[in-house]
Amino acid sequence: MIEIKIKSQEKNYPIVIENEAITDLREKVFANLESYLVVISAKVEKLYGKQLNIPKNRKFVLKDGEKEKNFTNYRKILEQALKLKLTRKSTIVAIGGGVVGDLAGFCASTYMRGIDFIQVPTTLLACVDSSVGGKTAIDTSFGKNLIGTFYQPKAVYINPRFLKTLDERQFKTGLGEVIKYSFIEKSCMCDEELNLTNFLSTEDIHDEKVLAKLIEICIKLKKSVVEKDEKESGLRRILNFGHTYGHAIEKITNYKKFTHGEAVVEGMRFAFELALKKNLIDKNYKFLADDIMKKFDFRQIPKYKIEKMIELMLMDKKSDGKTITFILPTDYSTVEAFDLVL
Ligand code: GLY
C-alpha cells in the first residue's frame, strides 16, 4: 500500500494506492460513512456493480461521455441527495473517470455548502490527474469546465485493478497525461528525483505493480505543483502543457473525434515545434520528445488550418483575447509559460 498525503489550505487528504480485491475497496470506502450517495460510471457499474454491492437507491449511474457533465445531471444528483435526506455529515462518493469525479465533486462542494467527497478513480487519466488537486466542474454550451469550484476530497482511493478493463484507447488517453508529466518533471519542483522519462522507456507499463508505481510518480509530481499553487495563479499553469492547442483540437472536432489525451499529445507536438522555431530548445530534444510520443503510437491527428486554431485558442478561458498563453519546453523536462501573439 502506498499513501501520499496532500496538503491544501482547505484540508489535507490521503491518496491511497493499493492493488486489492474490489470487495476490499468497498470496505475501505463505505465502512465508516454515516450516509452517502455514490455517483458511478455506467461502465464501472456494469463491470463491478456486483462486487461493489451498493444499494440501488444510494447510487446515481452516470452514462459515459463528456456530454454527461452537465447541468441536468448536476440537478438530478442533488435531487437524489435531497430525497435521501443527506445531511452535512453525509458523503458523496465518485467511482469512475474524470467526468464522474468532476461532476460528483461539484455536487459535493455545493450540497449544503459542501459535504465530504471521496474519489475512487477508475481510469488512468483520473488516477494520475483529475482526481488530484481539487478541481471540480460541469460543462455548458459556452465551453468546458466554465462552472466549478476548487474543492478537495476527503480521500482518494486508487486501485490499479480497475485499469485492467480499460480499453487500449482509454488507457492511452491517460498515457497522454503521463507523458506530459515526463516533459514537465523538473518544473514541478518535486523534492524527490523521480525520472519519469527513464521509467517510461524501461518499464512494462501494463504490469499491475509497474502501473501502481507509475501512478505514484505522477501523483507525487502533481502534489508538488498543487501544494505550491492550489488555485492556479502561477506554477499550476504548467499542468496545461499541451492543453492550449489540445483544447482547440477538441473544440474543432466537437469533442467527438479524438480523446482528451490524444488531443493533448498533439498539443505537446505543437508546443515542441513552436519552441524549436523560437529557439527555446535544440533539435535533439525535439527528436527525443517525438520518439517518446511515437513509442506509444497515439492516433494521428490531422493539421487543421492554423488561422482557425488560433481563433479557437484566443477564445479559451485562459486567454485574454489578444495573446495566447502557451506552456513551452525550454530544456529537458522543463517548461515555462509564454504569452504569445501568433
Ligand atoms: N488538470 C490540470 C490541473 O489539475 O490543474
Brief digest:
The protein is an alpha/beta fold and 342 residues long. The protein has helices at residues 22-30, 42-52, 71-83, 98-110, 124-130, 168-184, 196-202, 208-228, 243-252, 260-277, 283-295, 306-314; strands spanning 2-6, 13-17, 36-41, 59-62, 91-96, 116-121, 135-140, 143-150, 155-158, 324-331, 334-340.
Assembly state here? single chain
> Judging from the principal axes of the Cα atoms, what is the shape?
globular
Category by helix and strand content: alpha/beta
Low-confidence stretches: none
Question: Biggest sheet, strands in spatial order?
Answer: 1-2-9-6-5-3-4
Percent range for β-strand residues: 15-25%
Rounded to an integer in angstroms, the radius of gyration calculated over CA atoms is 20 Å
Q: Number of helical runs?
A: 12
Q: Supply the CATH class of the largest domain.
A: Mainly Alpha
Instruction: Please name the fourth-level CATH homologous superfamily of the largest domain.
Output: Dehydroquinate synthase-like - alpha domain
- Mean pLDDT value: 95
Distance between the termini: 48 Å
